[in-house]
Structures are given as structure tokens and as C-alpha cells.
Amino acid sequence: MRFFFAHLVLDSDRRELRRGSELIPVQPQVFDLLLYLVQNRERVVGKDDLITAIWGGRIVSESTLTSRINAARKAIGDSGDSQALIRTIARKGLRFVGAVQTQSGDSEPTGQSPKSESPTSVAPAISLGPGKLGWRLPGVLTAVLAAILLYLVAPLPGTTGGSSRTVEPPKAISFAPAKSLAVAVLPFKNLSPDGEQEFFADGMTEEITSTLGRIPDLHVVARTSAFQFKGQNKDIQAIAKSLHATHLIEGSIRKLDDRIRITAQLIEADKGVQVWSDSYDRQVANTFALQEDIAQAIAAALRVPLGLAPGESLVSNRNIDPQSYEQFLRAKRLRQGRGLTELPESIALLEQVTARNPNFAPAWAQLALAYQLVPFIPFAKEYETISVDEKRRTADKWLPKSEKAAKLAIQLDPRLAEGYTALGGTLSFRGRFVEAEGLLIKALTLDPLSPVTLHYYNNLLGAVGRVEESLAIKQRLLRMEPFVFSYNGGIRDLLWINGQTESLITSLKASRSAIDLAYLARIYWWQGHHEEALAALNAILPESYHGEMVGDATRLLRASLTDTATPSRLPQLGRRLDFVYVHAGAPERALQLFADNVAAGFSPPNLMIGLWIPTYAPVRKTERFKSFARNAGLVQYWRAKGWPTFCQPTTSEDFVCR
After folding, report:
1. Residue 239: what are its φ and ψ, rounded to 5°?
2. Separation CA 133–CA 244 (nearest Å)
3. In a domain, 78, yes or no
4. How many CB atoms lie within 10 A of CB 159?
5. Position 510 in a domain
6. Prediction pTM value
7. Rounded to an integer, what distance in angstroms lies between the CA atom of residue 100 and that of residue 98?
8. For residues 331 and 244, is the Cβ–Cβ distance under 8 A?
9. Residue 126 has pLDDT above 80, yes or no
10. In the prediction, which pLDDT does 201 show?
11. In terms of Cα–Cα distance, which of 357, 322, 332, 348 is closest to 418?
12. For residue 251, what are the domain limits?
């Protein structure tokens, strides 16, 4: 289809903009935006429409959107002052107001577009290409992500402004974006004579990955999962397929004294061909400039604009000496790659780094992320038996430290996404969901594909009952990071809540782990398949759970078929087996562990997702659940952001859940 206006021809098939015989160069997103405005010229196009259609629901900054609109105007000889073709409608959006004729194939130009080109018939739902990670966005998530810009400009809690906000759902999507790029950075090989420099090679890999992630139009995936292939001599195409990447970056690092040499290459995965390669030999003191040079070279090779304002750089934090930076890389790798056991060493290193370099924002952000994980250490050891007092002592010691470090990181660098992520995560553990959501959304505007931020945001949405949106983000995250075990937390609950029960059962039966067998028993018993549920419990090794929990659960379930136990007679079963309380006639007892966590001031949102599974329907109808929801911060969130489908207000002070 060709569109004729103002002596210009916009060809959607050839993706060309011409003035006579002159081909006007236009960036892909600018072309997409212009085409979308022309195709929808009969109506005002809002910001959420543009974000949904052009960016596929990705979170984009206000400056990025404005720059694309300005570029579209410039390409067709328009401007923000004249607005002869693209007009801004105050507080509404944009509309293409130029006279347009259309031509399809060899037909003559006409003033009316054919019916087949109407907005609702081109693409009823958006299907993202490989570069967009191949997932389909349900309408509710699209609306949420499209609303993020509105959220950021609306008054924050505690400030002046309206007491509520309403977000209009996106209109029908009429544009399928062109195939985009998805880049994964494989671990760089350590060629240094000193084997102890392995951490430096891993750390530099992560830093280059993070730098690339700051380029708005470049999708960097598998930031952690790529380390799954460290040291493996596997086929490039197989690796790319596993990581859902269109391009791979690999290379090597050699560090000797105060010199560093990096060799890197960019490979187009499906063809297995090298797109770009280069070598860099610099002093260690110039590490940040080296990261910037590599990222810019890769962006240029992929023809992706950097999206930087005048004077901006991809690497803005450089206030650190070389020795401290090496410690920072080691500490970051310890926190990210080796679980909770190495957390104390990571914290000790980061505290040394921040003491010597108090203005280095990334170290404060990493320290905040490390502090907030400390309360999980006793959870990992004896989660089911820790007292409320012990949990409270640990949380009250470390979470305020995390909050303080995160705020300092934000103060030092307002463009550092990790600072907002860390603070949002810490506040979510405290049940301050309204504040936490605002911080996580801010982090996603700065780094839309940050796995940690998506993980925290997914958990928050699930905890407050926005389970459809939570599942959509969770599935996207798992596609981005297929080999990070911790990101699987909550997926069973979300699949069951969202009606994907049979596929979940198939997966659980194939796994046979203790956790999955307990979950399988939970579903089977709820479905009335009692013998299958008992068989699943009997298949669990006794040592998998504390004490006699599995045996007690089995006995209670058998007894519940003929008799109802009283709460005083029920043993402790733990979170994995708490569904037995519901069937034993004591639904309120199933809330005990959740209530203890809230009382301790440390309630991980990923655990709270389980409140919305079908098993908990009787629990949600109790007065104790209503009291819990108030204490946990859920009601405060619902009153500020809207009620979930599970709960609705009945009066100004009361509510009911199902």
C-alpha cells in the first residue's frame, strides 16, 4: 500500500519514504510511527496506542517517544511549530491531518483507504517477533505497560494531585512490528596468565552486557542465563535458539598488570556469520571508555541508534579507582552467580568499595541488593521452623541498610535503574506495595529488560492479586532467562490461578521433585482425585521435609474423608503442605506462616502469590484473611490502585473476598 501526501509517497510494502525520486532516510521506528499515524488518520492516536503498536508494549521513556515524533515530523518536512501534517491534540495525543490518497498494487490512487487496511483488520492481536521474545501480550498487560508513562507523570502518593487515576485501555492494534534484534552476550574467555582473573572476565562480561542494555532499541536477553554456556564448545545456532537470541557476542579478555586486551565479535546466529569484530588494547584505568567503545561499535554494526541526549554517555558512573573496580566486579559476581553462601563476602567487598569510593553509585546499588537478600539466608536453611522474633531481628537489621544504600545510589545517579530496583524490592518485602510499584516502574523505564526488575515486579503484581499481568511478565522473564532457577518461583501458582491446570499437571508429573510432588498432591486433592493425591505424597522422600510433615499430611488427608479435625489437634505442616489444613476443616490455620512473615516485617511477595490459588478460596472468605490483608499492605494498595478480581469493597471500611 502506498500513501500520497504533501508531494511524498509512503510505501508500506517497500518500507520507503520518497519525495519524487529522492529516497528519504528514515529510522525503522520512525517509519513505523509515521505509517501508524497515516493508517489511523481518522482518529486521535494516544501515547498508549503508539507504545503498544510501535514498541510492542515495551516500556519506553518520554524522551524516546518525543524524539521519534520529532524525527517523523522532520522526515516529512513538518515541525512542532507548524504542525501542518502531524498535529498535537492537547492532553489527547496526535493526529495525522494531511490530505492522503492511497494506492494498492497497480490501481489508481484514491482518497479512501480500502477496507482491508482498516485498523482493526490488519492485526487483531500483536505477535512479537523473535527480537521481541516471541510472546503474545494479553490486553490487560498491554494496558498496564502502556500506562506507565501516565503513571510517572501522575502525582505520587503523599503529593498533591488527584486521589485516583483512570487508565484507558488501548485501542485495537493495527500494526505488527518488523522483526527486531535480540542480543545475548556469552561469557568472555579469560586468557590472563593469572587464573584468579576469571572473576574479572566474568565481571567485564556483565558490565558490557549492562552497557548494551542501556541502548533503548537494543534488546539484550539472557543476561544471566548466558553464563550457562561458559566453557562449552557448543554450536552457535543451538545456543542462540536456547537463549532466544538473533545475535550473539563472544570474545576474550587478557589482563596483565595495568593493561587489558579485549577481543570481541558479533555473530548473526541463524546464518552463523560474523557481523563485526574488533580488538581493544587499553590501560585498566580506561576500562569504562572501553566498555562504551565496544557497546557503540556493536550498536553501529546493528544500525541501532544509541538514543542518547547531547552530552550523555552509556557509562556515566566512573568515580572509582581501578583496584576498587576490580573488587566491585568480584563482589557483583559473588552476589549474582553463587547464591546466598557467598553473600557475606560480597557484602564485605562492597562495603570496602563504598568506603573508598563513596560517590560510585553502582556499588551502593549492588550493596542494597545484597543487604536485602540477607534475611533469606535463615529462610533457606530452616524456613519452616524459624521463629517470628528471629525473622524480625534479621529483617530489622538488614532491610533498613538496604533502603539507605538504595536511596544513596538514586541520589548519586538518578538514571541508574538498579537503585530503583533495589529500593522497590526492599519496600515490597515490607508490604509498602504502592511505593514499591512506582520505583520498579521507574526502573523499567530506564532498563525495560532488566531481569531482576521484571522478577520483582512480577512478584509484586502476583502478591496483590493482579495475576494475569503477573503471569504474562513471568512467562516473558522465563523466556528471556531460561536458566535462572530463582525466576521460576511462583510459576506453579500463576499457571494454576490462570486456568492452565492440565499443562501444569503434565509438567509436575514429569519433574517428580519433592516440591512438585507436593504441588501435584495439592491440585489432585482439590480436584477430588484423592488416591492420586496420596500417591504423589507417598512418592516424596521423607527427608525432603522437616520432621514428620509428609506423614502427618497424609494421615490428616485420610482422616478428612471421614472426620474433621480441630485446629488445636493439627501439627505444623509448612507452606508446601498447608493445603491440608483447608481440607482438615481449619482454613485459617493455612494463613499462619503468611501472618508470621508480616509480623516479622519480612514478607517476600513471591510467597504471597499462593494466596490466590483455588485451594485458598475458603481461606480468603475468613475474617482472619481480611485482617491479614490489612496488615500485609494489600488493602492499602487496592484502595490506591484498584481491587483485584478476588476481592471487592462492600463499604468504605470493609471488603469481601472469594
Report:
1. -65, -45
2. 7
3. yes
4. 7
5. yes
6. 0.73
7. 6
8. no
9. no
10. 93
11. 332
12. 182-301
